[in-house]
């Protein structure tokens, strides 16, 4: 993984931002992506003088575009201004002047001209998409020049959304990715809504053998599986504190909430239960450092975080976390990852515990373009509370075919887990052993795009078998969410 360039270095002009596309005799020559193409003349050809000869408005636009292309921004600005004195609604002149104004530091004028084009776009339906695309690109350029890169990224999403063709969209996306790499701030949003057969991790049984008794004990409704709907929202925002070609240090904040609504069947099974009883909220602040010494084939990571969580509306846990990791490019198609993580959990309601985790994984791209992955995780958690004192082994396999299935980008996976508790209050003298699997099929609909976001659907089936019947768990659900396309 290549670290992005240093934000403080002078930024080269973006492709599509510093040059221009000439698809018509107007040859605008401005960096507005590929949207402003072959716009029809909006002015009658009234003559003007330049260098001793007469120029028509179309020739003035062409010349202004050429001046922009060779860096004569003030000349282009003056020519566009002259055109606008004849017709304040000349959208081509507005776009030319927006670009020139941005280049000579008059960003407020650049933004005003771009906004004017957006207002005028609807008056020319046959060119509305191209004008909106070009004006949005111009706004993004001006905002980026002001150092407001996050707002610039939002306008580039708008430019991609209104792009009149695939080439225009590709330019907006490329510029978005470039601007994101230069932006010290980055924010990701998450959203899913998921019907679940078991939102409380309740037992699949209505009775269980407990405490070594020779008969089964009936389980209350709240201890059994309760179906319902989960609504999950999350945000992660990070600030890049320092960066070079070989390292990057981020400060980040992450917040997640999971809210639930019980089904009518669940309410009948457990009349005293409410969806809010199972709601969780988590806040995490941390620092992450990455470095790529030597040839760049190995990327090392180091991180630390602290956070807190609530459960059922009450403060549940506090935790500290530290991690070390490495990602090694074994070849152009194979990568190996290794990691070590330590967690310390305390809090008013959570069992206090210290957990060490070792993880490893390998991913490989096949000749067909599909990607296969294998991961192994080992955990040792120690605690004075039996439910947090255990050893665990996890193994996961994944497969991402190349191409689309049913119009969506697929990813399939299977995770297996074995957990051993040496002591269990529910099985005196025997401990407890759990075996579980999680099977999923994930689909991202890349062809459905709205402002750079794609819908996703994940089908999931999870089951756990335990030596203590109370912990036999069966879960099925469908997660519907959105993901960024770029």
Q: What keywords describe this structure?
A:
486 residues, disordered N terminus, elongated, two-stranded antiparallel sheet, 2 domains, Porin, alpha+beta, Serine Threonine Protein Phosphatase 5, Tetratricopeptide repeat, 14-stranded antiparallel barrel
Question: Quick summary of this structure?
Answer:
This protein is an alpha+beta fold and 486 residues long. It is 22% helix and 41% strand. Strand 10 and strand 11 (334-346) form a beta hairpin.
Please provide the ordered H/E string of secondary-structure elements.
EEHHHHHHHEEEEEHEEEEEEEEEEE
Major sheet description: 14 strands, antiparallel, barrel
CATH topology of the largest domain: Porin
Class inferred from helices and paired strands: alpha+beta
- List the domain count as a whole number: 2
Number of helices: 8
Strand adjacency order, main sheet: 3-6-7-8-9-10-11-12-13-14-15-16-17-18
Question: What share of residues is helical?
Answer: 10-25%
Overall pLDDT confidence: 88
Instruction: Please name the fourth-level CATH homologous superfamily of the largest domain.
Output: monomeric porin ompg
Ends: how far apart?
A: 16 Å
| Residue fraction in strands | 35-45%
Overall shape: it is: elongated
Number of strands: 18
